[in-house]
Design a protein that fits this description.
The chain has 640 residues and is of the alpha/beta class. It is built from 19 helices and 20 strands. Helix 6 crosses helix 12, helix 8 runs antiparallel to helix 13 and helix 15 crosses helix 17. The two termini are 19 Å apart.
Length: 640
């Protein structure tokens, strides 16, 4: 369970209706298999010890006695097997019959969660045989032990504070107020459901959305184990539709009509982080629910769940196109409001022929279309200097014309050389002063043109650059409205590609595709043989790595070692261990040292769940120390 990961399983055994010994053997066989796979929480379907479809056979003492004996044997089978197991079984208590999810750990029955809501409509008639569980859990004498019996029992791991498990049974999650709500409010991070939900047309979609939605509402992991083949088909068919979901995302889903085990891993640290940040998720006080300790070994979990290499970019092409359209609209709407509010006569955009300025120009053009304004009032300014190449210059000029903007060229080499003379800078010394003087000169030109034309300067810098501080303070760092401020570099590329794919202007399409093929560069050093000499990713590292680091650090508050572990897993075969560690150290060091640049950012629209605005999502002191983060990274060996 290192880094908060815990492996869970939803298992549907082959059964025979009322054949308890057969069912017991099949349950134990799957239990053995799941434990061998490293599952620590294992969930079986509702009433699987007997079969859900026994009907009035549930009134037969011989069946109930066999079920109780089988449960005790299954519990014994868990001894020395490192797992918390939930099994559905009918139990007679106090002269009444209950539908129960029995919790088993280390050879013992540690809790009996009763079914609260008994469906008695359509094909269901559970109230014919069963009694709803009590309103509150209590302790009962069962097989010579005092065992908690009732709803919403909390099973708490003795070594891992984040692992608190609670069970509900089938119909509960379909009810208006599921018991899991109260369990989650008292700290349950994992909800399990022993279910017997039959198949009808379209029900699988509803079931999937229901489980995903409940996990999102509770900010929890949810393991749903459903009855399958082997149940009676007198009137209905069961498909073994098992689902594992976490905070709104389905991590794993079984094939229907194939009894099987599915596995995935919950990220409990992620769940807790989300709850901490969500101030509307108010945990209950008083601890009124019964809490039962259990123990499983705290060991490293082998990861099988998938983590996206580019978490800001949807992998599905259709979803990606929808996301791009939505983002461009948000950016343009933000700028539209600012232009209208300030009565700006023009929008001034510095155009370099790179990705960021291209996106800013495209967004500005959209905003002007929304305002029904002539795009000639967009002043696209290209400012060639020492590092400008013909390729980027020509692309900047051509895209400005094709979008309908007014192109202005202001060469700045002479002004920068005068500035060098004034401050005593040797033009042959290509240091940070050499580079930043150009960036600040460009910003001065843009600001002054905006003043002369009654306009405002549109910022081009993206969120990845802000995270790394890869911007010249009061140079490209500054604008009057930063449309790209919360767009990561990996997403900028896809936004420009989307615009290229969507345009009907073949000449503009050609230019945009060439921009996509151009290396990312500030172009502040002289070209080599006409080509770009200064490539950003050679200096600060690959943006796909930095965006990965940024997402998991800010979105979920992961510690560096956990981010490294995920990156090593996701980028296996792309970057070696030493390379990932090198750039993660660079990211952490720069992220902390460059906060002062983010503390005075211009306004700009938030477009996703991760943003760095000092007025919104990220409020960090400019002089915070990175020592704790670097200490953890320094302890990671370069080799396994």
């Amino acid at each position: 369970m290192k880094h908060g990961f815990i492996k869970v399983a939803a298992a549907t055994p082959d059964i025979r209706v009322a054949d308890v010994d057969y069912n017991k053997e099949k349950i134990c066989a799957l239990l053995r298999e799941a434990c061998n796979e490293g599952a620590k929480i294992i969930v079986f379907p509702e009433l699987c010890v007997t079969g859900y479809t026994c009907g009035d056979l549930f009134t037969q003492d011989i069946l109930l006695k066999a079920a109780k004996e089988a449960l005790l044997e299954i519990a014994g089978f868990t001894k020395d097997r490192d797992a918390l197991v939930f099994v559905g079984v009918p139990l007679s208590v106090g002269g009444k019959l209950y539908n129960v999810a029995a919790a088993l750990n280390n050879g013992k029955i540690i809790g009996l969660t009763t079914k609260t809501f008994l469906p008695n409509y359509a094909e269901f008639y559970e109230m014919r045989q069963f009694t709803p569980g009590p309103d509150r859990a209590q302790y009962i004498q069962f097989a010579g032990e005092q065992v908690p019996f009732g709803p919403q029992i909390l099973f708490c791991d003795t070594d891992m504070d984040e692992l608190i498990v609670s069970a509900e049974i089938c119909e509960a999650v379909w009810s208006p107020v599921p018991p899991s709500i109260f369990a989650a409010l008292e700290g349950a991070t994992v909800i399990v459901n022993c279910s017997a939900s039959d198949e009808t047309i379209g029900k699988d979609t509803y079931r999937r959305e229901l489980i995903a939605g409940q996990s999102a509402r509770l900010i929890a992991g949810y393991v749903y184990a459903n009855a399958g083949e082997g149940e009676s088909t007198t009137d209905v068919v069961f498909g073994g539709h098992n689902i594992i979901a976490e905070n709104g995302t389905v991590l794993k889903e079984a094939r229907r009509y194939h009894n099987e085990i599915i596995y995935s891993e919950f990220d409990l640290q992620r769940i807790i982080s989300e709850r901490r940040k969500n101030t509307t998720f108010q945990t209950a006080e008083g601890y009124s629910l019964i809490r039962v300790p259990f123990h499983i070994k705290n060991e490293k979990t082998k990861l099988t769940r998938q983590f996206p290499r580019r978490p800001f970019v949807p992998s599905d092409e259709r979803a990606r196109a929808q996301r791009c359209e939505e983002i461009l609209t948000i950016q343009a709407m933000g700028l539209k409001k600012r232009l209208a509010h300030t009565n700006a006569k023009t929008a001034v955009v510095g155009i370099s022929g790179g990705l960021d300025s291209t996106l800013a120009l495209l967004v500005t053009a959209r905003a002007f279309d929304m305002l029904d304004r002539d795009k000639k009032d967009i002043i696209a300014v290209t400012m060639p200097c020492f590092g400008t190449t013909d390729r980027t210059y020509n692309n900047a000029c051509e895209m400005s014309r094709k979008t309908g903007a007014t192109l202005r060229e202001v060469p700045i080499a002479e002004a920068v050389n005068i500035h060098f003379r004034d401050i005593g800078q040797d033009p042959e010394t290509h240091d940070v002063t050499y580079e930043n003087s150009q960036a600040r000169e460009r910003t001065q030109v843009l600001m002054d043109i905006a003043n002369r034309t009654g306009g405002m300067v549109i910022g081009t810098g993206d969120m990845s650059e802000l995270a790394l501080g890869w911007a010249t303070y009061n140079g490209d760092h500054m604008s009057m409205y930063g449309v790209n401020a919360s767009v990561p570099k990996t997403l900028v590329r896809h936004l420009v590609k989307y615009a290229a794919d969507e345009t009907t202007d073949e000449e503009l399409k050609k230019v945009l595709y060439d921009v996509l093929d151009t290396p990312v560069s500030p172009e502040l050093l002289p070209p080599k043989d006409g080509d770009i000499a200064q490539k950003t990713e050679d200096l600060v590292g690959p943006y796909e790595l930095h965006d990965f680091f940024l997402y998991y650090m800010l979105r979920f508050g992961y510690e560096p070692a956990k981010i490294f572990r995920l990156a090593e897993n996701v980028f296996d075969g792309v970057y070696d261990r030493a390379t990932i560690l090198k750039w993660l150290k660079t990211f952490c060091r720069r992220f902390f040292s460059q906060q002062f640049k983010r503390s005075c950012l211009p306004d700009g629209p938030k477009i996703g769940t991760v943003a760095l605005s000092p007025r919104g999502d990220w409020r960090m002191p400019s002089d915070a120390c990175v020592a704790v983060w670097m200490k953890e990274l320094d302890e990671i060996p370069l080799r396994d």
